[in-house]
Structures
1.
Amino acid sequence: GIEWCIQNKATYNISIISMSLGANVNSDGTSPLEVACDNAVAAGISVVVAAGNAGPSSNTVGIPACAFNVTTVGAIDDSMNIASFSSRGPTLDGRIKPDVCAVGVSVTSAQANTNGYVTWQGTSMATPHVAGVYALLLEYNPSLSPSQLKQIIKESAVDKGDAGPDNTYGWGVVDSMNAVNYVAPVAHSIIVVNIDAPLSAEVNETIFVNSTIRNLGSNSETNIIVDFLVNTTIQNTTTIDFIQNGTSTNVSFSWKPTVAGEIYKIGIYAHPVPDENQICNNLRKKLVVVPLDWVVTGKETVTDQTITVVGNLTVQSGGNLTLNNVGLFLTSVVDGQFGIYVENGGFLYIYNATILPFYPLYMYKFAVYGNMAMVNCNVSYIWGVEGGGGDLSTSGLSIHSDNVSVLNSTVSYCKTVGIGCYASPFISGNKIMYNGNNNDFRYGGVYCAPETSPIISNNTFIDNKESNIYSGGYAAPKITNNTIISGINPTTWFPTTYYGIYTCLTFIPDVPVISNNSIIGTRIGVYCWGSSPRVIYNNISKNILGIYAPSSDISPFIAYNTLTNN
């Protein structure tokens, strides 16, 4: 279809392709469908693509939404809040997606095969809004190229979420009036295009804040006043003598933060010029963190408090930290900027605690090389630790010590894996749900690195992608009495989780034991790839395949299971 549009572009004056479709696979933009979309853009056709409905985890933007030159659209509600289902970036190769957002919640549309209407939601409903704005722009100026249209719609969007482009809202919410003003300018319109500054700085370090000021109006302007603000207080002011209509100029400020442990909100504000009415883009904001690490070297106990750590929490060797009934917030302004680290020989005991990022959009790291007991806790939005070990480079709660227990806790919405076992911890009684990013069969709920033997028992796994439990080469976990449940993709009606339990490359005598589990509604309940696990006394139902052992040279022991409706 895309190739047909390219071939017939001139015949039918095809200028825009709107694609409310896709696959929930995070990509680097090189899949055949994405290449075809970029070819269409190169041929002069704007391609507008739905981001997908696999949010709220990061790295959930799918194919072809990860293509380089398409306009990827996320979904908001009528209050301009991001829809929970709207897929987030970045792409597999780290680019920001979506590009923009539009209304995709409770959207009324014509109902097929009737004379009536129906209300739907999804990024599929948001995408045509953006395609329609492109059509408006082309109606005024048919010579605009796809790259010009994309730049206009991004620069004219209303910034939402944290300041500047992000992997939730992209460049912001599409504003059709602002966009039209780019090509059909009003008499007077000054905007702040961007704000460029470091994400973090040290006390008394000089940083430079740069910004581009653009004149969208039909008149040239003089004496434009521009303020530099820190926490809403004006720190400095400059005046631009002249900006010709349709052009931009740059301004620069220098500044030194003075307080450690502070999250500064900096901004660039261009004062409205006389007779300017559209002022929603006269201010751009950004966060700058000045870290103050919490380093535990002796014995510390914190009870019944809410703590915000602007930096890293590190329990050093010999340190002993107890957190009881604590709300702990880790501050990052990009994913994985700061985190929690328990060094070898350190002790961390966490009871009845909630651990979350201070800014919900940005995840933190959590790595345990020493000793830890986590009981009745809620831990969410962990980014992962680079170089985690084994054959998986990142994981959520990254455990590298046998002396770790995770009990009766909730681990959810982590980037790649809820819990990464690079040793043999005890994991029991937990809810492990909505982790992973659709990108690798090893990702999902719990990852067992090669040559480990964790005990995974009495947990509830819900909709982790791609595997609820993955057992790596020569790992021998004991997986018992767990409940594993998949969700359903509302577009394809396929299970959203591929594998209930995935085992690979294990041989007698050190093999996974999979017993007394309930595995419901996945694509493959138990997958044995080159492995010989003991699969016994499980209740496996409503999966597309119950148990699958494709290799002819292995001999898994499969007995006493109840398989129904697979």
2.
Amino acid sequence: METQISLKNLTLSPLNVRKVKTSAEEDAQLRALIESQGVLQNLIVIPSPDAEGRYEVIAGGRRLSALNHLLAKGKIDAEFPVRCVVKTESEAIEASLAENYRSDMHPADRFVAYKAMLDAGRSIEDIAKRFGKTVTEVKKLLKLGAVSPVILDAFRSQEMNFDMVMAFTVTDDQKAQESVFAEVKDQYHPSPRFVRQKLLNTDVTTDDTTFKFVGQEAYEAAGGTLSEDLFADSQYVNDVDLLNRLADEKLDKLQESFKAEGWGFVEATLDGGYSHPLRFAPCIDGETITAPDSVIQEFEAKERELEGLMEAAPDHEDEEANERFRQLNEELNDLKATIDASREFSDEQKQSTGVLLSVDFRTGELVTKVGIALPKKQPEKAQNEDGTTTEAPKPTESHALKSDLEAYRLQALEAAMMQKAEICLDMTIFTMAKAVLAGSTWYRRPLGIDLDVNTFSATKDIEETSAAAEIRKHRDALDLSWLAQEGDLEQFKAFQKLSRASKLNILAHCSAQTLRCATNEVEQYVAEQIKFDLSKHWQPTKANYFNRIKKGKLIEILKDLKGDEFALSQADAKKGDLATILDELDETTGWLPESLTKAA
């Protein structure tokens, strides 16, 4: 029997079967719903054995708590009528269990319901207030509700997980969503990252090293825009070409400023310098120290004190002496850092040494290595037979293009190595042994055995190369049935039952994708062993190369491929037209930029 009972006459019954407490967030949302909608579902009560006219709530304890909270806040009074169904004590447990025994709404249905409220005219702020959620939470739910019904149906039927649904929210274009969904739905392990990259035509985020180096203010001031992903902490860079151009320009200016200081040479790279041959080159210290005399005197005095302490307590058994020893070491380190920072190079030192400028891959900040002693430095001017000098040719490839070319080559070498499982096995064991048995530092190892898988995110078309297709084809051929098992242990047991050939194929696929650098001496040796031919995996095109170099270099390439007469006949053509000609030439097939043929 349903009736209305004043709130003041209701208390919670010990017979209520729900014992697990809900979160504070869930309780807040329920209070907001009751405040805006009222109590939509009745409470189930039994007469109180202790007081006539009072009732105990056996189902609906959370609703009772929410009502009492609203009473305490003065939003309702004690006479507030509550819809209730009265049961006998003998029916209490059964009724309480039945009331709590229900299926939760599927998340996809909830997303669509929120979207329907917005479409009906409610504001985001109003929805947030009525349902006890933040504006940001409602925006996320609305984004999910705007995903194509085709994808939400796949989510309902468990053909698509929640991470994948979130990936589709980076665009509101449902046709584009459905196109990408058709591409990934039959993949064994579809990747949210791949979905975002396909929908946005970029995989570069504001967490990217190059973006941090350029800076958001400079990027947006140059007309660059960002795409928002509500489910990630970073945003996506829409104009990667602009970003790379700005990075090149900034690095070029820095390079020129150091050259103006008189250094013998200045090298610059955007990749952190890890693959640069000068990274481990020896350096000299600046011969002029500009630190105050007081700092130098303090350093020398503490050095003498430390030496005296070591002579007085050589066995380090005196705790007080040990504490002073530790303190002196810290103070000396700080003083030495101050002195080293004050060192300046003489003009003569600068002329005989050089600088390596790189970008820290974590922070995007400039890293400067100065005073590099280069035994055999390329002269900036070449001596001709007649005694005159000629300026050495300036680089024709930008820093960003060089970085992309290295990515193409490394990806292609990955694809080639995947076909040579035994060599991958050798490299994997070798890398592990170097780390465990020889104490090799991570940057000296040929493989990132910590599974730092290459993504090449800064190279816009990296997923469209033939090497990328080969890698996907190799993955699709792997026996990954063991991944369908529940939990690590069961997966491992199933993995052990694979044939040796299947295990080697998986090993080859995984280890090849952790290659550190295609120009590392070990990788180069392996490339020779497997007869690696980059031109079979990557070709320069108008988009990925010819449009990105200067017109003069395009004419030179035409001379090499078609002869002087043909090249001269195209001398007045626009750069874009020259790039198109090279893109369509039969002679371009198999041709590679000089920077890649040297690396190969």
3.
Amino acid sequence: MDIYLIWLGFVLTAICEGVPCEVIPKDPYVEHGSSIKVMFKKTCNTWKLNSHSKNFWTLENKRIDESLYESNSTFSILTISNITLPKVTVRFHSYVQEYEQIMSGTIIRTYQRPRNISCVTFMSPCDFVCHWKHDIQPTEKINYKVIRQSQEGPRETCSSNHTSCSFKSCPIFSYQNYITVQAESTFWKINSYTLELDPWNTVKIDPPKHVRVVALRACLKVDWERPGGQMFLSQVIHCQVRYAQHVMYMSMGERAATATMTTAEVEECTNHTTSVRCSLDKALWSNWSRPVTVLSDLNVRGWQLNLWRKIDPPDNRGTRGVHLMWKGISPACNAIDGYKLTWREAEMVVSSSVDRASITVDQWACRVTLAAFRGNTTFPEDSVYLPAIGESLYQVTAPQTTAKDGVIYVSWAVPPARPVNGYMIDWTADGETYNWLRIQDTDLKLTGLLNFTPYTITVTPLYDTNTGLGTVLTICSKEKAPNYIWTINVSDHEKSAQVIWTTVPQSPCTGAIVNYTVFYKTRTQPEMSVTVNSGIQKVTLVSLQSDTEYSVHVMASAVTGKTNSSVSHFKTKRYGRTFVITTGFICGVSFLVVLVTGLYCVIQWKRILRKMVPNPGLSSLAFWSSQEYQTPYNNPLETETICENIYPCEVDTKTDNASGPTHPEDEDTLDGEETGSRQMDRRSSGFGSSSSCDSQSVEESIRLIPAPAELPSRSQPDKGLNPVESVSSQDSPLDSLDSQLPERCPINPYRGQTPVESPVPPAGHEEELGRSLLETRSG
């Protein structure tokens, strides 16, 4: 809020006073390297300046030393010296209520004078052209004017929009000329420093014409005509002759129409290009003349041939192939007609353009001679020795080869027991094209080789009359980094991944792989790596994040360099194999448990349904043992009666309805005693435990028992069950119990029955009987 009020006050004050706050001069242009004073008017905003605590200036946002400030009652003045930048920004700052505020500013731009003026006078056609340099902004549009003036001649001008201008006329040669370049833009105007020059020193004559070159033995003869014709006969002309990377000088005197020069010794049978240029005294050099190329002569008699051979292994008959090669005379020299090869009685002639030939020799030693000829004249020759098969020869010892930066270094020791005249070293990269060199030293540096290429090098000692046995060495000129890693396969899991890679078969000059490094990372985490030795080409990455995308690449490292594969991407699984197996196992076990439990419950429920309605036809009677009656368990308590511990098994009379009608006199009794009958059923089926002795009279209990004739017989399933028959007329043990029962205990109607085994009903009869009983109870 305070800042807002300050700015509002500043704007209102400025409007009221009508004086803008600005640095003057506004956006000036000054000459490069000059000085300027800028001022800020204090009375533009009295309220702000009265409330400030401190004012200061900045140049390109850097505070200027206060020693450069000046101040009076009206202005705050800053002096800036030696401005060399193309553009600088100056601002005036003030503190208002402890807040720094930029009051105003200005941009100072610089401009420069045209410099490095040079002028050239061309004689045909006559023209005077001046050039200069001027450092300006690319967007600036500058108009130039070149002023030429002599002591006696008129003042001439030339206008241009570029840094050159042509007058289309020659200057006055008799007087000094004064040249000034004026540059002008929309905002500034400046003149260059005046250049004083002699018009003759600006003349650039035409290059010499009709230059002729003749090849002499070991030198060249050059002649040309005087440049300019008759125009400069009264002046000395200086000339230069350029040939074979050499330059020779000579001068042409006054009125000399031609010039001739013989060069120094040049290389034989070589193409030499020659050209000439000339100038007046202290003037500018002309352009070079049109080049002339000639072939220098060859002194054939002084030429030395260089012959060598490579011998193939002999066949079964001892015949060997010999490949001859030589360094002869260039066919372009046209110095010879051809070469002649001779060995023993054999002879072969080849043309001058051939530098190799193949011959066949037997198992014996011989010498092959090479000679160049022209007509009937034979020039100096060279020969080479072919040893016999099995001939004992010496060879160099302790050969060594090393390679560094494409250069092969070969060294060896002198063969023992015999002096050596020299050594022949030959090397090849393809087995067909050979280079060879004869030296006297025991070491050699081979250069100009193909990179990453294996070379076969042979070192052979040379003797007076024969040659020794060659020692063969093989080395690469330079070893490179391992070959490209061809493919990367990733098998991803939940928290791990297996990376497998294959490499391109290594070339002979590929550095041996030391190890492999597998780099992997996510989009947000730093890169991690795993390193294995060169014999392993797979890695298992562990401790990865599940359901995460990774990038992976493999780097093969060797002493000679490193090679990286392309980047592959993979994503780990959300759930791993262990989780899926465990979850499946738990789900399977749970399903089996639920299934088994359900089946068990269904089976038990069916059993319970079957037990809810007992089958009276499956009941039986048994004797009550007198010994068991005497046991303490069977002794009733004082508060209990004997009948409370006896649970009689009775048959509900309503089941008789299934086999036939009941007696009419029993229907009322059954209806009135339905509750007691159900109690008896519960006791017989195990669902009840209380006795009905106290609630029923002896007569009522007896009425619940059907007559013997009404019980269905097993032998008559269609007519119902037969009554229980007595198997013995003897007294039952229950009869002896009657005398011991209290008088209040009702008489059990089963006491008058003889225990027999119940008849077994036919299959399915139990279910029908159970359903009949359920219907009877529900009714």
4.
Amino acid sequence: MRLSNRVLAGAFLLSALATLLFYFFREHAPEHPVLLITTPAPQVELLPVYFGIALGYFDAAGLDLRVVYAGSREASRQKQPALNACYLEDVLYTQIFSQEKRVVVTILTEREGAVLLGRRPEAFSWEKTRQKSIIADEPTNATTVILEEILRKNKIYPHRETTLIQNIPEDLRIPAFLAGTGDYLVAPEPAATLLTQKRQAFVVAPLTLGFPLPRAVLAAPEEEARKNRAAITALNRVLANTRNDLYTRPAKELAWAVGPYFPHLSLSTLEKVIARGQKEQVWSRTGKTDPVYFSRLQEMLKRAGELPRPVACEEVFWGQKLKARMQN
């Protein structure tokens, strides 16, 4: 009987010790570094990020990556380092006009995601826009600069032979078009697909110049990028895989995986958006850009009167900056 009591007491002590050790190691276990991506709203450009989170790729790489929406309560409470989803021209303007050192840590898209919509299905040529009007983005947006370049390439002088309506706020452009303003509309995804599904507008042309241009990016203050170099390296390592998935997996499979990030879209609509992006090769395959194409974008912005001076490639792209420092 005494032996039995001793066995029970020993078992109890072992159990208590195991419980203490469990809670100790749980409390002191190394946590994955947290990295936030802030964006105004769900964006198709972030598809490689959404897909990596949905399939657990970032968790497997030891990175707690979260997407939060700017202005939300969650974003205001977060104190972790954050990357900002924006367009490359925003980084350029920030460096030039505010002297804030922001760097691009990866490129998300290398083709313009917006398309030109018309009021009816037609055998389109850019000549049809002559003496017509197009509702477009504001002048500082590279989407408008690309549109102007396409018009010039087709020997049409923007603002002289084709009117660009650029004074309509972003959230009022589609209502204005539906109310009868303008002959054509520049619309991003998924708005373009939603309009075409309802037959309220029709895609007449993609906004492409025939070569890749860095467009949507993830950027951060240079100091933040430096302090979170390991997390950013892990991010890019995972994105290398998810970018490949975007072009090797069916659009239906991708839509099913990232659907929760687009609660306002049906899976069939999202599938069409992704399929068009795959066809136009909107998403970057490498996360990097050729300096030649970066220079082309800056030349276009300068020709449009929006960029007073160019910015060196190594001053904008974090990977190029690190490479330059290592060489020096």
